[in-house]
Structure formats: structure tokens, C-alpha cells
Amino acid sequence: MIFFIVVGVLMAGYGTAYIASEDVRYLTRAGMEETRILQSRRPIADLVRNPATKPELRSQLQLVLDTRDYAAQLGLAAKQTYTTYSDVGRDTLLLNLSAAPKDCICPYTWKYPIVGRIPYKGFFDVAAGKREAVRLAARGYDVYLRPAAAFSTLGWFNDPLLSTALTEDSVELAALVFHEIAHNSLYVRSATPFNESFAQLVAYRAAEHFFRARGDSIASQRAADRWHDEIVLGEYYDSLVSRLNRLYDSHPSPETLDSGRSAAGAWARAQLEGPIGSQLKTFRIGRLAERPVNNARLVGARIYRTRLDLFDRWYDAHGQDVGKSVAALRDLVGDTEGDSALGRLARAVGDSVRAGVDSTAGK
User: What are the pLDDT tens digits along the chain (363 aa)?
Assistant: First the structure.
């Protein structure tokens, strides 16, 4: 996940700007939190060597270092990402907010320096995130507020591993490291679905190779199976969105809109409990099938699952070599922005973009 921190030097007039501007208060809080995180960093190598470090934490941190080393061997831009560790002292560090109109799967976007338009906004201040969600809901938007375990500053800072990102699942922990390092290696401005879907490819394909190289065939297969599930879920979300788009394109009355969304929700539940669920190897449906249609939630889910088949075909075309695939993709997309990156990838593998997420359209 990308969460770019802008730390401005606010000189004359700072106090007035802070009181008057929600944006200034937001950026100030973000800058303060980033500073606090950076100040609390401790070298992971020191923690691994320290006999006072709990065995479970030492094992997790050693896996992070090993994953980082492997990422560098693949030619990814590991830089100093995850060479340090920060205990944030709470379960949730950051909340991400997504929003979309009830009659269109069109993400509300926020514009930032460097990274362009992003279809979510991160909040270190939980209360501020909830206020923004309430404000957008009052304007008629579907909203989705969710915790984020990690974020990337694209190498602008030496991102530490956060305590909120730790998990006992070795495959998911390794995948997280590969995912965030992938953002250092390739980033396309205003193309969040492309960036996150690309990082998902790197996450699970690199994890598959990493564990195989360590002689852990079980973990390697689990990483491959998880990538399989991501592709299956991506196709499921494409089908659901296509069904909803047909409803929305008909410009329904409020009553028809509500009934149509309910019908789409019933179809989605049947798919998850039937043909889609039967294809999944690692993912548990759980309460997912019970969720009503929420366009903002769909935007959030699809950010990480946009045409994963294209990325996988690109990977196959480059000898199933993660390093070569990343280097070639970086050359392919060049200085593109927005959806043009996905279009260029589609043409390169002989396909066309269908049911894509508009990463740049917004309010």
C-alpha cells in the first residue's frame, strides 16, 4: 500500500493555516506520526542478535531479513526498506478510507504531490477518519474504512517494519516484504490498481521462489495457491462489477437501485458459497458472503486484483523469473501515467483491458 507522507516546512502563518485548513492539520498529523515512527526505529539485525528478544519475534524478524536479501538477489530495489523495526504500541496504526457513489463504481480520489490521484486516504487519526467517512456518507457515497498494517513511502524514507504488520503466517509475512519492496522497484503515477496488482504478483510469485529455495515446499506451494486464489477472486469481482454496471448504466430509480443492489448481493453470496468458493485453495469465505453491496468496498478489493491474469501472463512470458519480469515491465510502462500503464501491459500480452478500475476518475 502506498501512503506518501508530505512533511512541509510551515513557517509564517502556520498557526492560522493549522486552524483554518483540514488539509494542513491532516498533513501535520501525518508528518508527526511518520517522525514518531522513524524515531522509534531499531535495527532488525540488532534485535535478532539480542538474547532478550522474544523467540517468536526473533524468528519473524529473521524471516524479514532473509526475505529482504532474496528480494535484492532478484534485482528488486530493497534499499533500506525493512532493515529497522518500530513497535507502534497499538493494534491499528492507520485507517484507509475509500468512497464511491451508490450508482457508480467510480472511486472518490484524493490528489497528492508526486504520486498523483489515489482512490483512498490514510488516517493516523482514527477520529478524523471516521469524521471523513461520515461526511462522505452524508453526501450519498458508499464508504469503506479499514485498517492498514503497513505502508510504503516509495523509498523516500527508510521504511521500518511496523509491529502491526507482523503475522505468524510466514508466507504472508514474506509476501508483505516483497509487496512493499516492489513499490520501490516500480511505481506509475495515478495508477493505484496497476501498482498494487503488480505488487501482488511480486509478493506471491517471489514468495513461492523464496520458500522453494529454502527447501520449504509446503510454504512454496501455499504461496502459489494464494496467488491462484487472488486471480480467482479478481475474476469474481470483475463479474460482480459487470453485473452492477449494467444496473447503474440503466439509470434506475432509487427503488430500482436498491432492489438491484440487493439482487446483485444475493448473486454474489451464491457465487461465493458455490462455484467461486469451491475453486479457492487457501482463502476462507467466512463472513465475506454476508456483506451487502458496497461500491467503496468493491473499489478497495479490486485495487489489489485488477487484471491479475495480465500480470501473470507477463510473468510467464519472461520465463517465470520475477526479477526479469519486473525489469521488463519497468521498461514497458516507462513514463506512463494512470490507466495507460494497464493498457500497455494488456497490448503487450495480446489482450485488451476489460472491467478495469478507473484509477484516475474521481470527485
Answer: 544 444 333 333 444 443 445 665 565 556 666 666 666 789 999 999 999 999 999 999 999 999 999 999 999 999 989 999 988 777 777 888 999 999 999 999 888 766 677 888 888 888 889 999 999 999 999 999 988 766 665 555 677 898 888 999 999 999 999 999 999 999 998 898 999 999 999 999 999 999 999 999 999 999 999 999 999 999 999 999 999 999 999 999 999 999 999 999 999 999 999 999 999 999 888 777 778 999 999 999 999 999 999 999 999 999 999 999 999 999 999 889 988 999 999 999 998 665 445 544 444
Domain ranges of the chain: 14-184, 218-348
286: DSSP letter:
G
Amino acid at 241: V
The pTM (predicted TM-score) of the whole model is: 0.84
